TrEMBL record:
PROSITE patterns: GATASE_TYPE_1
Gene3D superfamilies for the chain: 3.40.50.880
Organism for this UniProt entry: Ventrimonas faecis
UniProt cross-references to PANTHER family, sorted A to Z: GLUTAMINE AMIDOTRANSFERASE PB2B2.05-RELATED
Protein name: Gamma-glutamyl-gamma-aminobutyrate hydrolase family protein
Amino acid sequence: MMLPKIGITTINTKNPVSGAPLSTNGWTYNDAVTKGGGVPFLLPSVTNEDQLDAMVEACDGFIFSGGADITPCCYGEMAHPLVGDTSLKLDRSQIGLIRRVIKTRKPFLAICRGHQVLNVACGGTLYQDNSLHGEGTARHMIKDDRGDVSHQVTLKPGTTLYNMFGERVWTNSYHHQSVKKLGDGLKIAGTADDGIVEAIELIDYPYGLGIQWHPEAMLVASDDMLPVFTGLIEAAKKAADK
């Protein structure tokens, strides 16, 4: 049986020594896919519509990875002073890609920045910094080892994530932005104790999850988050067989 092909979005960066431009991503994403039973393929940022269509056609499932902030103009806002580095080309590429994936109903997992890309692609907005969420908001950009957990997320009954983990799950946390206005066709699947949205899911969709934490990094320490990836791979197998 053919192993499902999982496309993983990349980030645009530079070699710290030579300054040469790079299209890359962390090895933990690749390892998570192979551990879950799939084959990883890295997807560079392109904005050509035919090339985006070809990427969607070539892969059975997708991971939208973490990375820099989304340019606020993508959701109709001016940049707050606390917004970090952005790349409009990367934003247009990933928003265009995830919209195409949704149209084909292929399975995907959107992680951290990817979770935010999903919300924006569906017409939602973001808190440009979690401090804007209001008083009592915890610090979600933790400086511990990326495999360490830092807080719990409460999951809603009837969601894919609840069926995987139950009502409460420990997660790591490396984000300073979060969902503000929820995008169309989405439902909130999990929240932190301070009210920050930590997980969203597409309504009536085979496997379309957005999670704010980094499950691929947590796999370095334990297999607790492996169901997120095996679920994606199983859904990709079904998509490939159609």
